[in-house]
Structures are given as structure tokens and as C-alpha cells.
């Protein structure tokens, strides 16, 4: 009887485990460390639905061609949750200029745990 109770308890924990998972970055457009043509949108896709009011991103231009000491320059964009509920989309008024960029993000899913990270890419 004890082994049956133990097996049921273990099964319950295994089944409940996915509900406690944190959102993981699955993909990004552009991909991390990619060099791309000018673009006006960056999208991050996660493993779980995101809480819109607690999820955000900030893009910073970290380098500009021909400027050795380019200071970090924040870029203004509109941050929104994609129609699937699992993506964070940052849209800019015009395509990004040539340079190096770092997109930092902070997302929260239904489990209420904050996950932070960043991707870097270049625009040619």
C-alpha cells in the first residue's frame, strides 16, 4: 500500500511539473548573433504564454560603423505581446540603422516568475 501511495504521489508531481516551468526563449527574429538587413521589428518567441503588463524589452544600439567609441544608445520601440500570446514583439517607427544591437528582455508567464535575458545582432 505504501508503494502505491508513493507511486501516486510521484506521478502527481511529474504531471504537475510542467505547470511550474518558466518561460524559455525558443527563437528570435533576427536570430542571436545574426547579421541582417535593416528591419523595423524584432520578435522573441517563448515556450509559455506571457503576462503582457509584466513583460518588456529594451533595444540598445551598442556600436555604429565608423565610430570606435559609440556610446550605448537606447532605441524607442513599441513592445507588445504577439497574437499567439507567447511572443514579445518590438516594433520601430523606421528600420534600424546599420550597427550592433543588444535587445534585453524581461518576461513573466502565468507562474509569475521573472525571466531575463538578451540577444545581440548586427544590422548591415
Structure notes:
Keywords: Copper, Metal-binding, Periplasm, Signal. It is found in: Periplasm. Belongs to the CopC family. One of its GO terms (molecular function) is copper ion binding. Its main location: periplasm. With about 120 residues, the chain is mainly beta. The protein has one domain (about 20-124): Immunoglobulin-like (Sandwich), CATH 2.60.40.1220. Helices cover about 10% and strands about 45% of the residues. It has one helix at about 1-15, and strands at about 25-30, 35, 40-45, 55-65, 75, 80, 85-90, 100-110, 115-124. The strands form 2 sheets. It has a 5-stranded mixed beta sheet, with no helix packed on it. A hairpin with a 5-residue loop joins β8 and β9 (about 115-124). The termini are far apart. Mean pLDDT is about 90; it is low at about 5-20.
Summarize the structure.
12% of the residues lie in helices and 43% in strands.
Amino acid at each position: 500500500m505504501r508503494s502505491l501511495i508513493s507511486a501516486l504521489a510521484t506521478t502527481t508531481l511529474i504531471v504537475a511539473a510542467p505547470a511550474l516551468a518558466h518561460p524559455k526563449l525558443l527563437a528570435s527574429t533576427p536570430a542571436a548573433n545574426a547579421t541582417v538587413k535593416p528591419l523595423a521589428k524584432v520578435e522573441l518567441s517563448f515556450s509559455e504564454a506571457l503576462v503582457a503588463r509584466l513583460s518588456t524589452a529594451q533595444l540598445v544600439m551598442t556600436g555604429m560603423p565608423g565610430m570606435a567609441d559609440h556610446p550605448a544608445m537606447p532605441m524607442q520601440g513599441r513592445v507588445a505581446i504577439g497574437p499567439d500570446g507567447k511572443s514579445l514583439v518590438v516594433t520601430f517607427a523606421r528600420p534600424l540603422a546599420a550597427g550592433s544591437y543588444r535587445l534585453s528582455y524581461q518576461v513573466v508567464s502565468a507562474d509569475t516568475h521573472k525571466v531575463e535575458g538578451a540577444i545581440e545582432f548586427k544590422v548591415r
